[in-house]
Design brief:
Elements lengths: L9 H7 L15 H11 L3 H17 L8 E11 L12 H15 L22 E5 L12 E5 L7 H12 L7 E6 L7 E3 L11 E4 L19 H10 L39 E2 L2 E2 L19 H12 L22 E3 L3 E2 L4 E6 L7 E6 L2 E2 L2 E2 L5 E4 L3 E11 L2 E13 L4 E2 L2 E3 L12 E3 L8 E6 L5 E7 L10 E5 L3 E2 L6 E9 L9 E7 L7 E8 H4 L18 E6 L7 E9 L6 E10 L14 E3 L6 E4 L8 E8 L6 E6 L3 E4 L7 E9 L14 E4 L12 E3 L6 E4 L8 E8 L6 E6 L4 E4 L7 E11 L4 E2 L6 E4 L5 H4 L10 E4 L6 E6 L7 E6 L4 E6 L5 E5 L6 E8 L4 E8 L1
Parallel strand pairs: 1-2, 1-3, 1-4, 4-6, 10-17, 18-24
Antiparallel strand pairs: 5-6, 7-8, 9-11, 11-15, 12-14, 12-16, 13-15, 16-17, 19-30, 20-23, 21-22, 22-30, 23-29, 24-29, 25-28, 25-30, 26-27, 26-29, 31-32, 32-35, 33-34, 33-36, 36-37, 38-39, 39-42, 40-41, 40-43, 43-44, 43-45, 46-47, 47-50, 48-49, 48-51, 51-52
Helix pairs in contact: 3-7
The chain binds zinc ion.
Zinc ion binds next to helix 6.
Length: 877
């Protein structure tokens, strides 16, 4: 198992910290990352859920919807003690709890007295998060409470595994209505830790050591961490903030590091209060609550952090907005509402539904931009006529009084679209850019990003569906684009690249594309619908398939003439058939005439089957070519003769002059009209076979075993010798062997098992005068598989598919495997070849390695099973 660095406890910690130079290992003050890594081991879907939540968060922020209201979060504090009386040791006082709530309300509203210590250069970044907290006034059953609960679990301290496995599930209140905070003495040395959004429902919340909960002197411990900022920090995580030093300096501030652009990048945690610290080339914001500085040093969240927290509270944690946990029993109504849509086209209607609690008896609505502009019925329907972003206010009343709620920027009316021509490639590393959405109704496999060979033959991110491991036949997963404005296009088409292999004819999947021209309200079915062999771009594959080259991709075109001048969205729908993987990339919307993608020249020209008057000319397939024009001439002639236009990538030229040397070249034709053609390829030359020098006859490969094979032909001792070329079919260069004419066999040895080899042969009739027959056609054979029952080697497993990220890496290296492997070992080796970390990862498909204490530089990451070794270079920042 992974061994985590633990902080030393108590006063010893305080004494140790000032020593922290290159010698001392820095303590992990916050256990959030470690506990997350453990949770991911036992909960393989956690990563997917967190990715979905992040996408949802980014989408919310892309719309710039930010509620202006103060959001109040009910807190329940579970005090876990050891039988001590209240006020002694772990069994802290209510006053200590209240002091913590007071700190939170100041810190999150930027009303903390030490805002004056925020450096001038960071003042414009500092934010009032407009988040407040209360101790719960109502419990989940509607009974009165003070929000503080006490339990004797009879231990002097508690491990994270005991907390997660035993205490939390037994004590938690619904996370939909409360923020759960557990306070106790932690055995693992952390000041505290939190779950991120996406954690399981019976573990969701914040854990803080009692010595760092509340504010001194109501917290009787006087340490560097006793002003209540540990809880501020952990609630930051709970609202989806990352450490400012997460993943090192990062590259794109929005998607790497802490994914917040107004916190300066920082490569490692800051301790104490190093006001002049610099990192990643800039001054560090050591005052940020999400660093590791002393409590007295911290004093701000930034606007970017506020936006992530508010997006989280309007996204995955939005049920808290409806919680009545803060409302005293028998209070006025707590107003709230929902609507059936928040994003519509002009002139469409929205159904509002009252969600107020505590017994509202009358309602007063105000709809800016709406018709009607106000209403007193409980569940009104309102239409909107103009593009814009509009607020909604509801006042709910009962016998105890009235309360109101305003949801600012709640309804977006927008039929504008991104201008055409439109192009999106997933190589940007974003599956859902602004305005896109994902529907994954079964919460199973869905569209995600994958690094693979794309249609440009580069390794880059594309969208894909893992149908190979998705046994849910008929299930549809939808990826929907933003609005795209077709105005200005006279003959609009959708063109995208797709790559797909069936598992077999019985297990095949489908891809559909549908179009909406009413802001996503309805989608016309199927402007594109392909499945099985019609969709496939590569042969069937029972192993998990991925594109190996550009030629595994196909460009498909969908006419859009019925949507002329419309604003439209596309929905790409994968229809699962438990087949194999589907890949999607390069979504273009443009005029058909402009969409002739550059046509590239053929490469890898070669000549085979050279006869007295004919040869076979071969070249590599060019993606997008309809056909090829081949031309040739005598080496000394000046004018070319177009010898054919041919749709395949091989052509037999006949009727040639036996006495001449020729040169030839070929070009690609990428459209029917001839307006999109490539340059001619590089030249290749050939001569013909001597008229009286014949190819060997009866050529064949025999006695084929796993590691050897014999090439044979009929003996002809009138020749001087034979020339044989052979190679592994996946390689490009030939090995040349000469065999004396007294022999008619050649034994190839030390071959690879289960591998296709190619070979060709020519007769050398007169070695001195260089009279030869020309080469035979290319022959091939496949070596045998090694029998696994005999030698114990599982040849079916031939590789470990994995991604290690981020790379370069800051603190945490994540390794994601396609498939868990038995007896998998992971090792990190430094440049000197010394093993610096080795761990076993049997049957895990997601492993995290804490590289925080590693020196900067290059390492090799090695993954191995008894049969396979793979490695990848890792750069530690
Ligand atoms: Zn933390």
């Amino acid at each position: 198992m992974m061994k985590m660095l633990r902080v030393l406890k108590g006063t010893l910690l305080v004494l140790l910290l000032p020593m922290g130079s290159a010698m001392a290992q820095n303590p992990v003050l916050c256990g959030t990352a470690d506990v997350l890594a453990q949770m991911k081991q036992s909960d393989p879907k956690l990563d997917d859920r967190m990715r979905d939540i992040e996408a949802q968060l980014q989408r919310y922020m892309s719309y710039g919807m930010r509620s202006g209201n103060v959001i109040t979060i009910p807190i329940v504090v579970h005090i876990i003690h050891n039988g001590d009386p209240i006020g002694s040791n772990q069994n802290i006082t209510d006053a200590q709890v209240q002091s913590q709530i007071d700190v939170l309300n100041k810190d999150f509203r930027r009303q903390n007295a030490d805002t004056v210590n925020t450096p001038a250069s960071f003042l414009s970044d500092a934010a009032d998060s407009k988040i407040e907290f209360c101790l719960a006034q109502q419990d989940p059953n509607g009974a009165a409470t003070n929000g503080i609960l006490r339990y004797n679990y009879n231990q002097t301290s508690y491990s994270t595994s005991y907390i997660e496995g035993t205490i939390k599930p037994a004590t938690i209140w619904s996370r939909n209505s409360y923020l759960n905070i557990w306070v106790m003495k932690l055995a693992d040395g952390y000041l505290g830790y939190s779950t991120f959004p996406g954690a399981s429902a019976n573990q969701d919340g914040v854990v803080v050591d009692h010595r760092y909960f509340g504010k001194y002197p109501l917290n009787p411990n006087n340490t560097n961490y006793s002003l209540g900022r540990t809880t501020t920090h952990e609630i930051g995580h709970w609202l989806n903030l990352l450490h400012t030093f997460n993943a090192g300096c990062g590259s794109d501030c929005a998607t790497t590091g802490d994914r917040v652009c107004d916190t300066p990048p920082v490569s490692a945690a800051n301790y104490g209060c190093s006001q002049s610290a610099t990192s990643c080339g800039v001054i560090s914001m050591v005052q940020n609550y999400m660093d590791y500085s002393d409590d007295a040093c911290m004093n701000l969240f930034t606007k970017g952090q506020r936006d992530r927290m508010i997006a989280t509270l309007n996204g995955t944690r939005s049920s808290l907005l409806n919680s009545i946990g803060c409302v005293p029993v028998n209070g006025p109504p707590v107003p709230d509402f929902i609507s059936n849509s928040t994003l519509i086209c002009p002139s469409e209607s929205v159904q509002f539904t009252d969600m107020s609690t505590n017994g509202a008896t009358s309602w007063s609505w105000t709809f800016s931009g709406g018709s009607p502009a106000s209403s007193s019925i409980q569940n009104p329907v309102v239409s909107y006529n103009s593009n814009g972003i509009y607020s909604v206010t509801l006042i709910a009343t009962n016998a105890n009084g009235s309360q109101n709620i305003t949801k600012s920027n709640y309804i977006t009316v927008d039929n504008s679209g991104t201008n055409s021509p439109f192009y999106y490639s997933f190589s940007s590393g974003v599956l859902q850019p602004a305005g896109w959405s994902l529907e994954n109704t079964d919460n199973g496999k869905t569209w995600e990003l994958k690094s693979t060979k794309n249609a440009s033959n580069n390794i880059a991110k594309v969208a894909y569906m893992n149908n190979h491991n998705y046994n849910s036949s008929g299930q549809e997963d939808h990826l929907t684009t933003e609005n795209i404005d077709l105005s200005g296009l006279s003959d609009p088409v959708l063109i995208f690249n797709v790559a797909y292999a069936q598992y077999s004819s019985q297990y095949a999947d489908g891809l559909k594309v549908s179009v909406s021209n009413d802001c996503g309200t309805t989608f016309d079915p199927h402007v594109y619908d392909k499945a099985g062999s019609a969709l496939a771009t590569a042969p069937n594959s029972t192993s998990e398939w991925f594109p190996m080259s550009a030629s595994d991709w196909r460009s498909d075109t969908v006419p859009l003439s019925q949507y002329l001048n419309d604003v439209i969205q596309f929905k790409f729908t994968n229809v699962n058939g438990y087949g194999n993987n589907l890949y999607l990339d390069d979504i273009h919307v443009a005029d058909r005439a402009s969409m002739s993608v550059p046509c590239t020249s053929p490469t890898q020209l070669s000549v085979s089957n050279v006869q007295e008057t004919s040869v076979v000319l071969d070249w590599e397939v060019v993606n997008g070519a309809l056909d090829y024009t081949i031309r040739a001439k005598g080496l000394t002639e000046t004018s070319w003769i177009t010898i054919d236009v041919n749709s395949g990538n091989s052509y037999q030229a006949t009727g040639l002059n036996n006495s001449m040397l020729y040169e030839w070249q070929v070009r690609s034709n990428c459209n029917a009209g001839g307006s999109n053609v490539s340059n001619y390829s590089q030249l290749d030359t050939f001569g013909l076979a001597a008229s009286n020098c014949n190819l060997p006859s009866n050529i064949s490969a025999v006695n084929i075993e796993a590691d050897k094979a014999t090439l044979q032909w009929d003996l002809n001792i009138s020749l001087d010798e034979y020339l044989i070329h052979w190679k592994d079919s996946s390689e490009s260069s030939w090995t040349e062997v000469t065999v004396d004419a007294l022999y008619a066999t050649l034994e190839l040895e030390t071959l690879e098992a289960d591998t296709k080899y190619e070979w060709k042969i020519q007769s050398v009739c007169d070695e001195v005068n260089d009279i030869t027959s020309g080469f035979s056609a290319i022959m091939d054979f496949r070596t045998q598989k090694i029998d696994s029952t005999n030698v114990g080697i599982d040849k079916i497993e031939s590789e470990i598919m994995f991604i290690a990220f981020p790379n370069p890496v800051g603190d945490i290296l994540n390794i994601s495997l396609e498939q868990p492997k038995d007896e998998l070992m992971i090792e990190i080796v430094d440049v000197a070849g010394k093993s610096v970390r080795k761990l076993s990862a049997n049957y895990s498909n997601f492993i995290t390695i804490n590289m925080k204490e590693f020196s900067k530089g290059v390492y090799m990451l090695k993954l191995s099973t008894p049969n396979i070794n793979v490695e990848e270079k890792i750069i530690k920042l």
